[in-house]
Amino acid sequence: MPYVLSVNIGRPRPNPWKRLPATGIDKQPVSGRVAVTAPGPKGTGAVGLAGDRAYDVKHHGGDDQAVYAYAREDLDHWEGELGRTFAPGSFGENLTTCGLDLNAVLIGERWRIGTVLLEVSAPRIPCATFAGWLDEKGWMRTFTRAARPGPYLRVVEPGELAAGDDLVVEHRPQDRRVTVAECFRALTTEPELLPLLADLPALPAEDREAVRQRLARTGTPTAAEGPGGPS
């Protein structure tokens, strides 16, 4: 059974990489049960876990990025690749998980953890803060090439969760099956996959609109329209 190895909350620290007053990427494991709620629209810095927040309010936080999860197995992969040790929370994740390939989960998939119901919304896209925090030459290129981004999740039902809770997959979409890794590759290195995303219901609305605009510029039909265009 997949489970949550660690629940991690950010400690504010200076952010010289984006010239912002602070960043919450320095996540540290906490004990006990943590309240999780839907934070509301992006722009305030609010996130899902009590005691945490985002400081780059333009690009982070809000309902569609309420929680970020990364797998212990992926941290282990990077330990082998980079010859470094990565503790839970090292990649800025709120939930460090075990036993589930988080890059193979589906956009729109729903997880029950403790009393919280979460929905996979989008892959994490690397930014300058992440690159500066890891301090690895060419890190954004390396991370992108590997396509191991881990998912953001929105809060469907608020509640509480803790380290040690089971991660129960309660729902997987049957009609539009796009994995986190496929979504990430479409948004970064493989634009030929973009038609899969244009009408993907669980993808954040701002991402769907950005995808549709990119496709419109190239005259590429969406997945729903098919090769012949709208029906």
Account of the 3D structure:
- This protein has 231 residues and is an alpha+beta fold.
- The protein has a single domain (3-176), classed as PK beta-barrel domain-like (M1 Pyruvate Kinase, Domain 3).
- Helix content is 21%, strand content 25%.
- The protein contains 5 helices and 12 strands.
- It has helices spanning 72-82, 128-134, 139-146, 180-188, 205-218, and strands spanning 3-10, 13-15, 20-23, 27-30, 34-36, 67-71, 95-98, 110-113, 116-123, 151-157, 159-161, 167-171.
- Strands 4-1-7-6-10-9-8-12 form an 8-stranded mixed sheet. A two-stranded antiparallel ribbon has the order 2-3. The chain has a two-stranded antiparallel ribbon with strand order 5-11.
- It is globular.
- The N and C termini lie far apart (44 Å).
- Residues 28-170 form the MOSC domain.
- Residues 211-231 are annotated as: Disordered.
